[in-house]
Amino acid sequence: MADIGKNVLNLRQLTDVERATTLKARESWSMFSIMSEFIETTERLSELNPAVTIFGSARIHPDNPYYIQCMELSRKLSDAGFAVISGGGPGIMAAANRGAYEGKSASIGLNIELPHEQQPNRWQNITLNFRHFFARKVAFAKYADAFVLFPGGFGTMDEMSEVLTLIQTGKSRRIPVILVGSDFWKGLLDWFRNTLVPFGTLTAQDVDLMEVIDDTDHILDAIFNFYEKRHLGPSEDERQKMLYL
């Protein structure tokens, strides 16, 4: 086959020195910015144990039953000794932080800078601010001993897919993934079981990585029952594995 000349220059080969220097400076600054987010997260959250990460829509208002339930759940988790981690913004995130803030354990907000929305809610004992979504996602996954997902939109679906993929592929340890709101999640789960599984892109065991629980106390029971069979928190081998999330 003939060589069709698909040569891509690297920065050292650029003859325009000023352009090369500008590109290097910009990319280097970006890398240092990313590193700083990981370093601060490690400094602030490494001893946070145990903890539950709660996901859900920023658009759910305080009078919504899911907001009220999320507050109740977070308060009970907090009083039971679990720190609660949320995205730090409004809606379900605020409900999660608010319930935990009123309880005995820490309320953590992992806020993301967005162009048109999201100011940190006021119910946080620890606030971390991120510019990079992927660094924030690592923090959600790395420090959680369970995930609870309330109804949400693209962001919640993205976070759900992320944590399920990490567990499915063995990049993260198996921990509870609980979906709250059977009516809300039914269509998606039916699609998983009736379309993706027969098509071969998921297995039935993949779908079983998550469970739907509507009752607040039953959510607590599911988390406690899971950890009756093993130690709370990651083992040393799991900690080592999670360095490569």
Describe it for me?
The protein is an alpha/beta fold and 245 residues long. It is built from nine helices and seven strands; from the N terminus they run αβαβαββαβαβααβαα. The protein has one domain (19-244): Rossmann fold (3-Layer(aba) Sandwich). It has a seven-stranded parallel sheet with strand order 4-3-2-1-5-6-7, sandwiched between helices. α2 runs parallel beside α8 (216-228). The longest helix has 29 residues, at 17-45.
Layout of helices and strands:
Layout lengths: L16 H29 L5 E5 L9 H15 L3 E4 L5 H10 L5 E6 L13 E5 L2 H10 L4 E3 L4 H15 L8 E3 L2 H18 L4 H4 L3 E2 L3 H13 L7 H6 L4
Parallel strand pairs: 1-2, 1-5, 2-3, 3-4, 5-6, 6-7
Helix pairs in contact: 2-3, 2-8
CATH architecture: 3-Layer(aba) Sandwich
Please state the CA-atom Rg, rounded to the nearest Å.
21 Å
Q: Uncertain runs with pLDDT below 50, 5 residues or more?
A: none
CATH class: Alpha Beta
Beta percentage is 5-15%
Reading the helices and strands in chain order gives HEHEHEEHEHEHHEHH
Terminal Cα separation, in Å? 40 Å
- Biggest sheet features: 7 strands, parallel
Tertiary shape: globular
- State the helix count: 9
Q: Which secondary-structure class do the elements indicate?
A: alpha/beta
Classify the fold: give the CATH topology. Answer: Rossmann fold
Helix content: 40-55%
Whole-number mean pLDDT: 89
